[in-house]
Amino acid sequence: MIKLIIFTIAVIIILSYFNISLRAIIDGNAFQDNFSFVWNSVKSGWNKYLVGPADYLWNDIFIDLIWDSFTDNLEKIKNGDDTTLTESAPAANFK
Fold first, then answer.
1. b/e map of 21-54 (b: 16 or more CB within 10 Å)?
2. 87 belongs to a structural domain
3. Within a domain: 52
4. What are the backbone dihedrals phi and psi of residue 38, each rounded to the nearest 5 degrees, phi first?
């Protein structure tokens, strides 16, 4: 994180040395057109290709498999019950 801050400051210093105004670049029509094009392309790619897999990973993997068992086990710990791990562990009978 600190490296990113130092890099950003260095880039701003270099641009200032060459009298390049960030405000002029950002306010320019070419920048806004290019940024708009890239942003619309990213949104289109997300909507066409990545929404389905991301939705599946979030709902079916993270929520169903990880989050629900996590919260269930926290409730069991809170109530003083055995967790799913201890319930599922094989027991050894030494008699």
1. eeeeeeeeeeeeeeeeeeeeeeeeeeeeeeeeee
2. no
3. yes
4. -65, -45
* Domain count of the fold of the chain: 1
**Integer Cα distance of 60 and 73 in angstroms:** 19
Residue 95 lies in a domain: no
Answer yes or no: is 25 within a domain.
yes
Report field, pTM of the whole predicted structure over 0.70: no
- Rounded distance, CA 65 to CA 56, Å? 12
* Largest interatomic CA distance in the chain: 85
Tens digit of pLDDT per residue, the chain (95 long)?
799 999 999 999 999 999 999 888 888 899 999 999 999 999 999 999 999 999 999 999 999 989 998 999 999 999 999 888 888 888 777 76
